[in-house]
Q: What sequence folds into this?
């Protein structure tokens, strides 16, 4: 026996309201997200904001003094790129539930996102793997709440 149309519509509307609230919560969280990552030589820490924009660069322990300009630039780019990739994966993970079909209302199919078009082709290659370097640099706190100084450098 199938549910009456009114009950199905009521369920769908409740699910839609719930999804809208969840999207709003996720958007608020993502607007405040940031990631800080160290370069592999541990000379530079780069921080990116919610849209992957570079918001901070720290030169650690005066290591930059012994580096050539090319080495320093490479360290900055490496750390910034790793932080941006980490932010991209965080956004993908946060948005994934909204792309899935509803378990309660089969008519609500979710939506498709073209992550490659949004973030570039590299994000999908590394989406399932968090590198040791990235895990090592963000400390024990969740990445989106990572604050400078919580990575054990002091």
A:
């Amino acid at each position: 026996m199938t549910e009456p149309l009114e009950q199905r519509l009521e369920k769908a509307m409740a699910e839609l309201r719930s999804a809208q609230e969840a999207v709003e919560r996720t958007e608020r969280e993502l607007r405040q997200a940031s990631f800080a990552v160290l370069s592999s030589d541990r000379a530079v820490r780069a921080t990116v904001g919610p849209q992957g924009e570079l918001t901070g660069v720290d030169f650690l322990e005066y290591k930059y003094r012994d580096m050539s300009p090319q080495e320093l630039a490479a360290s900055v780019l490496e750390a910034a790129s790793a932080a941006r990739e980490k932010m991209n994966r965080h956004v993908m993970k946060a948005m994934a539930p909204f792309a899935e079909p509803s378990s309660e209302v089969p008519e609500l199919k979710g939506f498709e996102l073209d992550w490659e078009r949004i973030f570039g082709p590299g994000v999908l290659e590394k989406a399932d793997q968090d590198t040791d370097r990235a895990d090592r640099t963000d400390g024990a706190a969740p990445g989106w709440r990572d604050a400078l100084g919580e990575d054990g450098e002091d």
Summary: Strands lie at 35-38, 44-48, 54-59. Confidence is low (pLDDT under 50) at residues 128-154. The CA atoms of residues 89 and 127 lie 6 Å apart.
